[in-house]
Design the sequence.
């Protein structure tokens, strides 16, 4: 995807040295476009844990490259297993993290120690390339939903999204935003309602940044405004991403997604979830009881960071100092509230039969 006309991916190997890894510091967006050079596994783990990178597919890709960096220091089996376990513990909810590490280990355990670094970089690059290809395919299957809405209404299509599921959350294209980017490229009149996504404001900071830099019409709204807009017919469909989908179609996504699904259901607004197959957890059937929900620091709720009127970046407290805060990072939307899933293989019902229809090898 592009920033002011220049194409980027969200993670790449530095072409100058051929081994270090570059990422955007997403905690600095949209105020500064800072690129970080990762040179060791601890730096990669910190980038994931601190949300310098976030989004389930991107976390998996960065973890894969983090293991590459670890092997450059010590390619022994004991060190590899230790570093892989450390990376796997950085974020518990997104299934891509464990998926990518397990895939790397499957390749590397059967590789001679002296060949592991080369093999690791090859496998990490393949994971990144496949993610970009999957997201592009999700875009092709999802853009049809926007085309259908345009044909049905004969006017601008208004899409609501929650959190950030664009190219900054993946290697390229994004999941929920991929259909929107393709609709924009095809000349469709599409407009995006961007939920701010408290408490970390990934919508206001990242989704709005992406869409603006790519020239897509959008408006940032408070999280609580979505239901109001749906009641007044100002939302044609909702498309969100996800950090984990169960084999039965339950969806874990950024906190607040469940409330959007309830509002969409009450107002007969289609609620679609864009999901690459790497985000489907075939071992889990009940999302509410089986998916671990990350509890993050209460400081994310009690403080907010932004640009002050004098141009400086400042963090300020917005709650009484004596008030504690709880901060569950995700919630689970039951499959019954999901209109359907958009995968790289096509669209399907959010159900076990629907998913198995596209992925029969998982039966």
Sequence:
């Amino acid at each position: 995807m592009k920033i002011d006309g220049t194409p980027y991916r969200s993670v790449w190997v530095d072409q100058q040295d051929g081994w270090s890894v570059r990422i955007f510091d997403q905690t600095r967006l949209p105020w500064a476009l800072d690129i970080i050079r990762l040179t060791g596994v601890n730096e990669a783990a910190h980038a994931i844990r601190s949300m310098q990178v976030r989004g389930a597919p991107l976390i998996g890709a960065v973890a894969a490259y983090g293991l590459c960096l670890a092997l450059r220091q010590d390619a022994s089996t004991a060190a590899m297993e230790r570093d892989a376990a450390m990376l796997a513990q950085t974020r518990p909810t997104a299934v891509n993290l464990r998926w990518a590490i397990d895939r790397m280990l499957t390749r590397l355990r059967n590789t001679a120690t002296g060949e592991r670094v080369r093999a690791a970089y090859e496998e990490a690059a393949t994971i990144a390339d496949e993610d970009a290809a999957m997201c592009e395919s999700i875009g092709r299957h999802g853009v049809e939903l926007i085309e259908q809405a345009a044909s049905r209404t004969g006017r601008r299509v208004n899409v609501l999204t929650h959190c950030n599921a664009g190219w900054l959350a993946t290697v390229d294209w994004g999941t929920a935003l991929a259909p929107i980017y393709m609709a924009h490229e095809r000349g469709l009149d599409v407009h995006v309602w961007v939920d701010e996504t408290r408490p970390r404001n990934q919508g206001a900071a990242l989704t709005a940044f992406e869409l603006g830099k790519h020239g897509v019409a959008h408006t940032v709204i408070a999280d609580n405004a979505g239901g109001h807009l749906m009641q007044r017919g100002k939302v044609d469909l909702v498309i969100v991403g996800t950090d984990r989908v169960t084999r039965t179609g339950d969806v874990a996504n950024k906190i607040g997604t469940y409330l959007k699904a309830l509002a969409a259901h009450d107002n007969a607004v289609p609620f679609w979830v864009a999901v690459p197959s790497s985000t489907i957890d075939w071992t889990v059937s009940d999302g509410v009881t089986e998916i671990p929900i990350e509890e993050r620091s209460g400081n994310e709720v009690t403080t907010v960071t932004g640009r002050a009127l004098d141009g400086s970046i400042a963090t300020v407290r917005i709650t009484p100092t004596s008030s504690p805060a709880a901060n569950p990072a995700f919630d689970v939307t039951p499959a019954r509230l999901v209109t359907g899933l958009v995968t790289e293989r096509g669209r399907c019902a959010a159900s076990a039969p629907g998913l198995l229809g596209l992925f029969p090898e998982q039966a």
Notes: The chain has two domains: 2-130, 139-362.
